[in-house]
Amino acid sequence: MKFDKCVKPKKLHSINAVLIKYFLLLAVFLIVMVEVVCYLIVRNTSEDKARERLSLIGRNVAARVNDDDIEGLIREYRMDGINVYVLSKDGNVLLPEGESADGDWKDGIDGVIKRLSDKAGGSVVYVQNNYMTYAAAVNYQGESYVVATYSLAVINGAARSLLTYFIIVGVVVILATGLISYTISQKLSSGLKNLSSTAVRFSQGDFSVNFANAEYLELADLSDTLNSVRDEVKKSGDLQHEIIANVSHDLKTPLTMIKAYASMIREISGDNPEKRDKHLQVIIDEADRLTGLVNDVLDVSKVTANLDELKFKVFNLTEFLYGIINKFDYLQETQGYKFMVDVDAGVYTRADEEKIGQVIYNLLGNAVNYTGGDKTVYVSLKKSLTEERVKLTVRDTGKGISDKDKEEIWNRYYRAKENHSRPVKGTGLGLNIVKIILENHSFDFGVDSEVGKGSSFWVDFPSVPEEPEK
Ligand code: ADP
User: For strand 389-396 and strand 454-462, is the pairing parallel, antiparallel, or unpaired?
Assistant: First the structure.
C-alpha cells in the first residue's frame, strides 16, 4: 500500500493540563488588568488632589502676601508638607524671612519666570524632579513670586505599598485559581477516565459493562450512547452466533441425508432401479435445499452490503409477474398447486427489476409453502384509483400468522413454530431479503393475516407511464 501523504500525529494534551493552563492565564490576565487600572486611578486621583490643594494654598498665600500674619500662615502649611516661599526675581527668599529655600531657587527662578510668561493667567502648576510646584507672580517688595512645592515621594510611597498589596493579592488569587482549576479538571477527567476504562473492558469482550456517569449532562449523554453501542454490538454478536448455528444446522441435515442415501444406494438399492431412483431423488432434493440455502445466505449478504446499488429502471410489472408465476408451473403440474391470478394489464413500475424479482419469488414461494389443503395461491396486481400506485397481493389459505409472529417473521432466520408442508425450500431468510430490498426501495409492504384463514402479503409499487423506447 502506498500513502501519498504522511500525516503527522497531533500532539495530545491532557484535559487537566489544558484546563489549568487556561484558567491560570485567565486569572493572570484579569489580575494584571484590574490591578493596573486600580493603580493608575489611585495614582492619578492622588496627584489631582495634590494639585488642587497646592493651587489653593498658593493662591491663598499670593492673595495675602502683604498681610502681617503671612509668615504664620506659611509655617502652618509647612506642617502639611507644603513648602511655600516668596522669592525675588533673582531667586532670593523674601518670605519666610531669614530662610533659604529648599533646592537652589537662584537657578530655578528663571525657569519659573519663563513658565509664567509662557502661560497667560498668572499662575502655573508643574511637576519637576519628583516635586509638584505652584508658582504665581505677586507684588511683594516689588516684582516677586510665590512658589509652593509638594514632594511627590509621599504619593509614590503610597503607590508602592499599594503595588505590594496588589502583588500579594495576585499571588493568592493565582494560587486559588490553580487549586480550583485542578479540582474541577480532576472531577471532569475522572468521569472520562471511568468511561475510558469501562470502554477498555468492553473492547476486551465484556458485554456486562455499564457506562455510568450521572454527574455531568454531556458525559451522561455519552454514557447513554456508549450503552446503546454496547447493546447493538452485543445484539449483532448474538445474531452472528445465531446465524452460524442456524446455517450449520441447516447445512448438516441435508448433508447427513445425502450421505445416508448415497450409502443406501451403494449398499442396498443400487440394483433396484425403482428404489434407487427414489433415493437419488432424495439426494437431488437435499442438494437443491443446500443450493437454496447457500443462495439465500449469499443474497442476504448481497442485499445487506449493496445498499446503494439499486439499478432503477422502468419495466412492465404485469409481464414480469407472469414470468415469475410461470416458474412455478412444475408445482402446478406435478403437485396440483393452483395459482388464481387477477392482474391489471400493462402496469409499469420503476424499481430494481432483478431485486423485485427476488421479492416476488420469495412471496410466491412462501404462499406455496404455507397455503392450506386447497393448495391455492391468489395473486393480484391492482392499480389504485388515482392510478399512481399499484398493489401486489399474494394470498394463501394456510394457517395464518399470529400477531406476535407478524412482527418477527421479517427478521433474519425467524421461523414460526408450526410445521408446514414445504414444496419450496425455506431457510428463514426469504422475508428478511424481501424486507431489506423493499426498505431500500422505500416501498410500503406488509402482511394481513388471520390465524386459521390464511395470510395476505402485499407490496405497494409506484405506477409509472411506459418509457418510450430509445
Ligand atoms: P422460511 O424459509 O422459513 O419460509 P421466510 O423468511 O420466508 O423463511 O419466512 C419466515 C417465517 O414466516 C416462516 O418460517 C413462516 O413461519 C412465516 N411465514 C412466511 N410466509 C408465510 C405464509 N404465507 N403463511 C404463514 N406463515 C408464513
Answer: antiparallel
